[in-house]
Amino acid sequence: MPIGGFMNSFWRYLLEVAPALLLGFVISGVVHEFIPDSWVEKHLGGRGMKGVLWSTLVGTVVPVCCWGCLPIAVSFRRKGASLGPILAILIVTPATSINALLVTAQLLGFKFAIYLFFTVILMGLLAGFIGNRIAFGRGEGSLRPEGCACKEKEECHCSKEKKKNPSARCLSILKYAFVEMPREVGKEALYGLALAAAVDSVMPVGYLIKNYLKGWAGYAFALVFGLATFFCATMGVPVVDALIRQGLSRGAGFVLLLAGPITSYGTIFVLRKEFGWKVLALYLSLVSVLSLLAGYAFSLS
């Protein structure tokens, strides 16, 4: 692999994800400082669908991509959110950004954009429901908030609600955003960028599509390409448009636009660190199966 090509790809990806990561860090600091632990446990904890619905709503309105949502998800997890809502946030947030949907409507059509939006929401709800069922079935519901000295079977209402002056709150937000969060997810993010740059440096995509990828082979390629490469939702739209122009089916393009942003390397590494290999395997399996089904259904519409 040419080292120059690798470094160019790495630097390009770093410049692309840095604004989203910085915004995600700041939002995670605001979540840490202003959202009480008791609220998170009440609305995002527990095995019911309420937490999944709340997290799906949060995911549709937070203006960050696949990398920016990582520190936000970790912050909610640290405050006691259940597995289901975290999976829903990780699926819905990166694929429903306003910029991505507008670019999708412009390049691929309004129907494509609307179908993508509602498909992502349904995927997030389903993944959240399954995640909660599995987590509580294994006795791994929500985490107790950090520093919470609650006894077993006792409702926990610990929170960071001590009164602070504005300057102290700003310092707390900045410390959490740019010290604690980079320590938590920074290494995994760098690993992900390096892997993405390595793949980008050696993969001859256009040649494969023109010569070998028709029918279900195109769907399989779109899924593998989405899992193996990194791009955020907005950046992925022109890529998908270009591949469709080269002969990839629109259904396969839909699969790629789902799987690519939702399965960034940062998401994969952080999920493995925070939840382990089994949850990571569940996440990737759900995204793969649901993306293929949604793409095929779109091709029939």
What does this structure look like?
It is a single chain. The chain is mostly helical and 301 residues long. It has one domain. It has 14 helices and no strands. The protein has helices at 3-34, 37-44, 50-61, 69-78, 83-95, 98-108, 110-137, 166-202, 205-212, 216-228, 233-245, 250-262, 265-275, 277-300. Helix 3 runs antiparallel to helix 7 (110-137), helix 10 (216-228) runs parallel beside helix 12 (250-262) and helix 12 (250-262) runs antiparallel to helix 14. Mean pLDDT is 76; it is low at 142-161.
Give the SSE map.
Elements: H1 3-34, H2 37-44, H3 50-61, H4 69-78, H5 83-95, H6 98-108, H7 110-137, H8 166-202, H9 205-212, H10 216-228, H11 233-245, H12 250-262, H13 265-275, H14 277-300
Helix pairs in contact: 1-4, 1-8, 3-5, 3-7, 4-5, 4-8, 5-7, 5-12, 6-7, 6-11, 7-14, 8-13, 10-12, 11-12, 12-14, 13-14
Q: Low-confidence spans: pLDDT under 50, at least 5 residues?
A: 142-161
Q: State the major sheet.
A: none
Mean pLDDT: 76
H-E string: HHHHHHHHHHHHHH
Distance between the termini: 42 Å
How many β strands by DSSP?
Answer: 0
Q: Treating each run of at least 4 consecutive H or I residues as one helix, how many helices?
A: 14
Tell me the structural class.
mainly alpha
Shape descriptor: globular
CA-based gyration radius: 20 Å
- Portion of residues in beta strands equals under 5%
* Count of structural domains: 1
Q: Into which percent range does the helicity of residues fall?
A: over 70%
